[in-house]
# Entry
Amino acid sequence: MARRKIIAGNWKMNMTPTEAVALVDTLKPLVVNDDVDVVFCVPAIDIIPAMEAAKGSNIAIGAENLYFEDKGAYTGEISPAMLVDAGVKYVIIGHSERREYFAETDETVNKKVLKAFAYGLTPIICCGETLTQREQGITIDWIRQQIKIAFLNVTEEQAKKAVIAYEPIWAIGTGKVATTEQAEEVCAAIRACIKELYGAETAEAIRIQYGGSVSASSAPELFAQPDIDGGLVGGASLKPDFGKIVNYNK
Ligand code: PGA
# Structure
């Protein structure tokens, strides 16, 4: 069975609650595509107003992070139960910006992935290499290690539902999109790694996105690759162009 594409926006630290409602209202009619799952991952404070604004549409609202404990004395963090209660279905985990600026590691990513699954949330698990690592020729080794640690103790049933976002760090927010060949090569290697860990059925089911300067012009070729099941989109998800990305196949 063909995998359903999943195209997610990552708003990062943009949009006040008022702006979030306006953006959802603007994009709502533009992101209609029955062939694709459409997700807006928004700042925590925007989740509830964005959810309200997206009601009755095909847009699912996701979070950009969660904490790996159930509740308690963790000032400033967001618990999985809070996300579930707000109606969230997807959560980005281990984005490279969180790894770089907020000290997230493969180990904390793994804890968050396990916690997301425990609460029925679908994690969008990010991985990606730096430009130095690509030049050193260790991209695939690096990504395989990130994936293996992220999936420690994740069951086969859970892994089938996971989403992985391959985002080369040098392509994020730089306007420097990976070539289609580079993106497909790594996404295929990720699927092969999942096959080693869980078997062919899980590898066929899991969805792997490409992220990093995806635009309306690069999306059609990227998303047509056999191992690329959609995208995680930053900058362009805040603009009407996101409608063109979602409708890459029209
Ligand atoms: P970008 O961001 O599309 O602005 O490069 C992608 C991401 O960081 O998820």
In short: The CA atoms of residues 6 and 37 lie 5 Å apart. The longest helix spans residues 180-198.
